[in-house]
Amino acid sequence: MWLSRPFNERSTRLFLLILVLAVTLVTILHLALPPENPLYVSGYTVGLLGKYLCYALLAVAVDLVWGYLGILSLGHGAFFALGGYAMGMYLMRQIGDRGTYGDPVLPDFMVFLNWESLPWYWHGFDMAWFAFLMVLLAPGALALVFGYLAFRSRVTGVYLSIITQAMTFALMLAFFRNEMGFGGNNGLTDFYDILGFDLRSGATRLGLFIASGVALALGYVLCRAIVASKLGRVCVASRDAEARTRFLGYRVERVQLFVFVVSAMLAGVAGALYVPQVGIINPSEFEPLFSIEIVVWVALGGRATLYGAVIGAILVNYAKTVFTGVMPDAWLFALGGLFVVSTVLLPKGIAGVLAYRRKQRNESDTTEVPA
Amino acid sequence: MNLWQSMARRDRVFEFLAPAISPVDVRHGPILYMEDVTVSFDGFRAIDNLNLTIDDGELRCIIGPNGAGKTTMMDIITGKTRPDTGDVWFGSRHDLLTMNEPEIASLGIGRKFQKPTVFEALTVFENLELAMTADKRVIPTLTARLTGDVRDRIEEVLTMIQLADQQAQPAGILSHGQKQWLEIGMLLMQRPRLLLVDEPVAGMTEQEMERTAELLTSLAGKQSVVVVEHDMGFVRSIARTVTVLHQGSVLAEGSMDQVQSDPRVIEVYLGESEEAA
């Protein structure tokens, strides 16, 4: 079975082990320790870590298309945001009549805009299964249409990057408009509960954190399964010599489309788990800058390794949390600096350094054995 | 026989359902048959009344000065260029002039280009695996498993191209000669009936040339091989029959010694090159 293939890999088992240990440790430290203990993990930190895990899943999705397929997407934030909006719409409908205006059906911003009834595309989002399906289908459909047009016309390289950037920018402008019916520049916020659990309670936050960990694990295994399959080798082949791959009889544009859609869906799941943890989704998630930031995480962590993307996403976001607390204005400079440093000094990212050190250690081991 | 009759026949399966073995019919003679082929580009006759037959299992060398039409000839066989007049048949059943490039390739004509293009990030083994004849749609490729048959075939080819020891290494670190062999191996994975090889030893060392000669002669018999080459020493070491092209048509054909003693050949080609040397 192709999906079980990653479990035979040492690196995947090690990754999953570390992830499970980290999530368990945080859960125990949060639940078992009294708040005055120095090792206690606060509810705020749990939420923050859950956010990092969502970013890590997003980075894995970007690494799948960039690292293995050679498609530098500067618009993956759009898929993340679409998944987030699908979740946000569900959470809005869960508010019911508890909103400021007390309308049982219409969200507050619609009442404020004097809308009479729910727009057609808001129907069904009161049902969790429908909303969760949309978390996958909305980004997937956008990726399908966009990818079909782009890959069929053999748009690649820089041009594709620019178009993905334009795509997310256009969506940002569209979602800023009140007439779109997604809350304009305020976005969707003031959520109450998810699946009947109070979003403000510590237990729900912890649950969302664990769910993010599970989603990251599953997403990682799925990506690894694709990468370790023959299809993954076709991806690498088309990344390095597209014409030659076509010549062997592979329909490169279909391979690209398939992987691109899978990646967009994973990004959507990451966005959907992100929204209830930060409590808001607004058009700023569509900002091109955010999509570029994701690429920096992957570049810093190391392309085409998947675990590198996870390391990069968590490290950079941790640095961002620290940095924006100390010197908020300098963060963008620091990010730019990080990107320059990683391209010049760590062309293969942190994962590259890890692999190099492992190789060196192995070599010194083998040279020591005969002596 | 019209379409309906052929579909009603119950003694055979439909062609599109039949297993993908090359259906080329060589019972009545040559595997490749070119007659009176002419191609002009803007009035320049690149191929001029070319007649050429290749027998099944033969190893044939094609030589000729620059501009003699060697590459154009290969382009015609693989469907890349359409001739203005003439016939090109693969076996006695397939008119290559009615087919496009992928159809011709799937019929069992493999072509190796001058510059080797292998997938450098993948291992030698994986390069061969991707080249294997298989269902190449997305989902079957995703769920494809490395069966014993596939592994056996890859190992067979690895032995043939003498890269068994390098099978786990990335193709990027192979030498130029090894890359050429790997590329020939990738063609062999598709079990071609006719191999067209364009300048296989360009840029190779003496040793590599010897091994390439061994490889190509070992392939002949099981499949037909057509080699276009400039290096006379190499041609002498492998060829049984040599065809000399000049200005788009066949100038001489025969064994290397016959060809070399032909005064017309000496005049247009060999003489010049010996003077230069």
TrEMBL record, chain A:
Record keyword Transmembrane present = yes
Q: Does the keyword Repeat apply?
A: no
Q: Per the record, GO CC terms? A: plasma membrane
Topological type in the membrane: Multi-pass membrane protein
**Where is this gene product found?**
Cell inner membrane
- Locate the transmembrane regions by residue number: 12-33, 39-58, 65-87, 127-151, 158-176, 206-223, 255-274, 294-318, 330-356
Q: Which classification does the entry list for the species?
A: Bacteria, Pseudomonadati, Pseudomonadota, Gammaproteobacteria, Oceanospirillales
* Entry protein name: Amino acid/amide ABC transporter membrane protein 2, HAAT family
Write down the species: Aidingimonas halophila
An example Gene Ontology molecular-function term: branched-chain amino acid transmembrane transporter activity
CDD domains with a match to the protein in the record? TM_PBP1_LivM_like
Which key words are in the record?
Cell membrane, Membrane, Transmembrane, Transmembrane helix
Q: What is its main location?
A: membrane
PANTHER family, per database record: HIGH-AFFINITY BRANCHED-CHAIN AMINO ACID TRANSPORT SYSTEM PERMEASE, SLR1201 PROTEIN
From TrEMBL, chain B:
What InterPro entries does the entry give? ABC_AA/LPS_Transport (IPR051120), ABC_transporter-like_ATP-bd (IPR003439), ABC_transptr_urea_ATP-bd_UrtD (IPR017781), BCA_ABC_TP_C (IPR032823), P-loop_NTPase (IPR027417)
Name of the protein in question? Urea transport system ATP-binding protein
- Which Gene Ontology terms of cellular component type are present? plasma membrane
The UniProt record lists the ABC transporter domain at 32-272
Q: Which top-level group of life is the source organism from?
A: Bacteria
Q: Which UniProt keywords apply?
A: ATP-binding, Nucleotide-binding, Transport
The family database entries (Gene3D superfamilies) matched by this protein are listed as: P-loop containing nucleotide triphosphate hydrolases (3.40.50.300)
Q: Which GO molecular function, any one, fits this protein according to its record?
A: ATP hydrolysis activity
Organism of derivation: Aidingimonas halophila
Q: Which PANTHER family match?
A: CONSERVED COMPONENT OF ABC TRANSPORTER FOR NATURAL AMINO ACIDS-RELATED, HIGH-AFFINITY BRANCHED-CHAIN AMINO ACID TRANSPORT ATP-BINDING PROTEIN
